[in-house]
Design brief:
The protein has about 425 residues and is α+β, with helices and mostly antiparallel strands. It has helices at about 10-30, 50-65, 75-80, 105-125, 130-160, 230-240, 250-260, 295-305, 315-325; strands at about 190, 195-200, 215-220, 220-225, 270, 275-280, 280-285, 330-335, 355, 360-365, 390-395, 410-415, 425, 430. A hairpin with a 2-residue loop joins strand 6 (about 275-280) and strand 7. The structure holds fe (ii) ion (FE2).
């Protein structure tokens, strides 16, 4: 296996971690009715119920099938329904049609989850030490896989609910008082000397294979914006004709926005001259102090061009975070049921703010293999490597990312036109020579 795993090998710790991750998925699904959980609002969105079943299928396929005595699938048909994209495992149901899977229902998926949970606990408790040592990294991959789907579940239900004519909230909350209308501090900059630096994961602790191997990169001196671009700044871009000026746009981006008629971020709508934003807590007036979110790479790039700046490369982002002393201390506005939305930047302190959480930050880097990258052997090798085409890297995590699932070397990726992810913008600039 070419994923890096942590040192968790004791059965009790593994079972406890397993229960923690699995129960969190069910907590996220709890506010949703079986009807909510069945809808697929566009090809990129999967029904909540499908996410709950697919992460269960992952443990059944990659752990139980190989190690459980006398293994038989819970339901053979589930391997067809809930395999996402693993060609080596076998045929699967069409992704854009997952919303047609009215049966099994949400309750049946819960029964499936319970069955696999019991078998996983039994397996972990019964394996000898040597076998557990071999199986533990795959189980740990299953935890991180399920956490990825916890974030996707929230992203996806946000889209589903946005198309309901009643625009219901996923969870009702008391709306926080409107933030300071003046917005956060003026954008500041953090200078980074550059030079021959290292990027990629190293040391103990989990990483996906696409974060490996750690390697050297040459960076010219540069600087990173000390916070994310705000809605207020985005409104200025729009008022200055940002969505109407071809000279600001990459060719593919211009074709996209003119073809689709985009004139604002994904979840924005205008009513009587006022912009509103759909969130997981309902539809609110756009708050100029909050980070802009749900913009595509094309929009992020056009904004940066309009501002006379650029997007950072992924190496600049990662090295900048490390240089700023924020590699180890992963804190920020990560998933928390009271927010599930990007928050205003804290007061300026001369360092990078909003590094983790709030919004995934678009970079100018294509999602490509690091030098020396090797996918794992077998079906699990399809996890990341085969998507290294026509996608851009995002860094940092967002307000839907589970705590414990963000790190400086994490490489998320989406096609440049995607904007249902909670994506935002941090600017970069040619640096001041140190
Ligand atoms: Fe998956």
């Amino acid at each position: 296996m070419t994923f890096t795993s942590s040192e968790v090998r004791e059965p009790e710790s593994l079972v406890s971690r397993y229960d923690e991750v699995r129960s969190h998925t069910e907590r996220l699904a709890a506010p949703l009715s079986p009807e909510d959980q069945t809808v697929q609002s566009m090809p990129d969105v999967s029904p909540t119920k499908w996410h709950r079943a697919h992460v269960t299928w992952f443990f059944e396929t990659f752990v139980l099938a190989d190690h459980e005595q006398g293994f038989t699938p819970f339901q053979e048909t589930y391997w067809f329904l809930f395999n996402s994209y693993y060609e080596a495992i076998g045929p699967r149901f069409s992704r854009p049609q997952r919303g047609l899977i009215s049966r099994p229902g949400a309750h049946d998926v819960g029964v499936y989850r319970g069955n696999v949970d019991d078998r996983m606990r039994d397996l972990v408790s019964s394996l000898d030490g040597g076998t557990l040592e071999k199986v533990a990294p795959t189980i740990e991959l299953g935890f991180h896989h399920e956490q990825q789907h916890q974030e996707l579940l929230l992203m996806d239900i946000k889209h589903v609910l946005s198309l309901n004519p009643l625009q219901p909230a996923y969870v009702e909350v008391v709306r926080p008082a409107s933030s300071d209308a003046a917005g956060p501090d003026a954008l500041g900059w953090v200078d980074v000397p550059g030079g021959l630096v290292e990027v990629g994961h190293e040391g103990s602790g989990f990483s996906f294979d696409n974060e490996l191997p750690r390697h050297q990169v040459w960076l010219e001196p540069y600087r990173l914006a000390d916070r994310l671009v705000t809605n207020g700044e985005w409104l200025e871009f729009m008022a200055d004709g940002g969505y109407r000026r071809a000279e600001l746009w990459l060719s593919d981006g211009w074709a996209k926005i003119t073809g689709e008629g985009w004139r604002a971020p994904f979840y924005w709508s205008e009513l009587d001259g006022v912009w509103f934003e759909h969130t997981l807590h309902g539809t609110w007036p756009v708050d100029p102090a909050l980070p802009v979110t749900h913009v595509s790479h094309y929009e992020a790039d056009a904004f940066a061009t309009w501002a006379g700046k650029r997007l950072p490369t992924e190496a600049e982002w990662e090295h900048g975070v490390r240089h700023d002393g924020q590699e180890a201390a992963v804190t920020g506005n990560l998933a928390n049921i009271d927010t599930f939305h990007p928050g205003a930047a804290p007061p300026a302190n001369g360092r990078l703010r909003q590094v983790y959480g709030d919004c995934w930050e678009w970079t100018s880097s294509s999602y490509l293999p690091y030098p020396g990258f090797h996918p794992a052997e077998g079906a699990i090798g399809e996890y990341n490597g085969k998507f290294m085409s026509n996608q851009m890297v995002l860094r940092g995590g967002c307000a839907l990312t589970p705590p414990g699932h963000a790190r400086a070397t994490y490489r998320n990726f989406f096609p440049p036109g995607a904007r249902w992810a909670m994506s935002g913008v941090r600017l970069a600039d040619g640096g001041v020579r140190a």
